[in-house]
């Protein structure tokens, strides 16, 4: 039978190289058509390489950790063949630092996707013990990777001699982390970044959410959060202050007439910024649904290049991690980023009286090469006005 090539697929515009982060199969393993055989990591996303046909893996040309170009041959499959010997047990060569646990049950396996099951099997992770965040109790790929990264601690043997703990651990940065580091530093080195602050009384939007959240979730089958209100407020402010929605190309300022809002979320491989397309045309419910869809893909590590590129402005919510105040860094080539923070009860003066209100600090980091102080302050005031009186979002004023 003829050997057929496994090649690196196209990974999107501007991406020409990837790293093989994991082989899901070993030489001699049977492979079904379209079954994941390897995982690639680029500087933006991770993606799986699926078998173009069924057969047996006969050769691994490129090992884990190696860089490969689009179109490169990374392995060979004998098409239509069947494995002549059982595949080696996955537990024969575990990583020294991993703690062995029983293999997951069939019931737990059935709730997880093929990539999650494969990673769990190769790392001897019991899926029943993985904290699942997917729909219907499904353990996602990101859940399993988190479990692998934080294995359970073995029970100490008091009769044995104490084990000296290593003082440091060296782990090679992923391509995604390298790119995040490079782009953020380039942003600081290139843009004239300045940050302006304001605070928002969240009373009205919190009351609105409390009153309608059950009806909203029942009708749309999604949770009503605060991010959609801020996205809508940002779109309204961007229309009034177009400089914040612009970018610099050479000696020209490019004013964007589309409102594609990046929403920073924590994913399986670090902080990522998927994009809510045409946010100006979407309702609150549609924005919440799109954010939920993108956040789910981020947790599973399945965001595509199309999900990640083309944003004109970014909203980041550090408040979910407890941040009270920060100065977010611009995501180039954008010229602005809005930072949300933790809502906290604070005493404020209203009409000469000191009252306790749920307050949130907000920050706008902007490129001072394009955006002046007047525009930046106006932008943030419009955000404040819209969120403090969410009726303005409905009326467009």
What report would you give on this structure?
This protein is of the alpha+beta class and 397 residues long. Helix 2 runs parallel beside helix 3 (141-149), helix 6 crosses helix 7 and helix 6 crosses helix 9. Strands 9, 12, 13, 14, 15, 16, 17 and 18 form an eight-stranded mixed beta sheet that branches. The protein is elongated. The protein has helices at 106-110, 114-122, 141-149, 175-190, 203-220, 227-240, 284-300, 305-308, 373-388, 391-395, and strands at residues 3-7, 17-23, 30-31, 36-41, 46-50, 55-60, 67-69, 73-79, 193-201, 246-249, 252-255, 261-267, 270-272, 275-276, 313-317, 336-340, 343-350, 353-367. The protein folds into three domains: 1-84, OB fold (Dihydrolipoamide Acetyltransferase, E2P) (Beta Barrel); 89-151, no CATH class; 193-395, Chloramphenicol Acetyltransferase, CATH 3.30.559.10.
How is the secondary structure organized here?
Layout: E1 3-7, E2 17-23, E3 30-31, E4 36-41, E5 46-50, E6 55-60, E7 67-69, E8 73-79, H1 106-110, H2 114-122, H3 141-149, H4 175-190, E9 193-201, H5 203-220, H6 227-240, E10 246-249, E11 252-255, E12 261-267, E13 270-272, E14 275-276, H7 284-300, H8 305-308, E15 313-317, E16 336-340, E17 343-350, E18 353-367, H9 373-388, H10 391-395
């Amino acid at each position: 039978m003829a050997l057929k090539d496994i090649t690196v697929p196209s990974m999107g515009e501007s991406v020409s190289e990837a790293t093989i982060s994991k082989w899901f199969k070993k030489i001699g393993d049977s492979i079904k058509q379209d079954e994941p055989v390897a995982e690639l990591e680029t500087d933006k996303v991770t993606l799986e390489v699926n078998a173009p046909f069924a057969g047996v893996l006969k050769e691994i040309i490129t090992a884990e950790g190696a860089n490969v170009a689009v179109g490169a041959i990374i392995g060979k499959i004998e098409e239509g063949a069947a494995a002549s010997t059982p595949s080696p047990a996955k537990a024969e060569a575990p990583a020294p630092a991993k703690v062995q646990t029983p293999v997951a049950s069939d019931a737990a396996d059935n709730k997880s996707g093929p990539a999650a099951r494969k990673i769990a099997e190769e790392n001897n992770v019991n899926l029943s013990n993985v904290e699942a965040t997917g729909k219907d109790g499904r353990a996602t790929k990101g859940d399993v990777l988190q479990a692998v990264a934080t294995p359970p601690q073995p029970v100490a043997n008091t009769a044995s001699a104490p084990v000296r703990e290593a003082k440091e651990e060296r782990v090679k940065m992923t391509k995604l982390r390298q790119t995040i580091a490079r782009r953020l530093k380039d942003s600081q080195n290139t843009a004239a970044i300045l940050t302006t602050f304001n605070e928002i009384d969240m009373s009205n939007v919190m009351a609105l959410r409390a009153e309608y959240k059950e009806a909203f979730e029942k009708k749309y089958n999604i949770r009503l959060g605060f991010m959609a209100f801020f996205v809508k407020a940002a779109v309204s402010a961007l229309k009034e202050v177009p400089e914040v929605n612009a970018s610099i190309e050479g000696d020209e300022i490019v004013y964007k007439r589309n409102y594609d809002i990046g929403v920073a979320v924590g994913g399986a491989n670090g902080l990522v910024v998927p994009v809510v397309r045409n946010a100006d045309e979407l309702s609150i419910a549609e924005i919440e649904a799109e954010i939920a869809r993108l956040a789910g893909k981020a947790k599973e590590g399945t965001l595509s290049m199309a999900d990640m590129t083309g944003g004109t402005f970014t909203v980041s919510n550090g408040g979910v991690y407890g941040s009270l105040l920060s100065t977010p860094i611009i995501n180039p080539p954008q010229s602005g980023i809005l930072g949300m923070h933790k809502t906290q009860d604070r005493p404020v003066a209203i009409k000469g009286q000191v009252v306790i209100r749920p307050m949130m600090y907000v920050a706008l980091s902007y490129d001072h090469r394009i955006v002046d102080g007047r525009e930046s302050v106006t932008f943030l005031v419009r955000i404040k006005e819209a969120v403090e009186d969410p009726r303005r979002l409905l009326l467009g004023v």
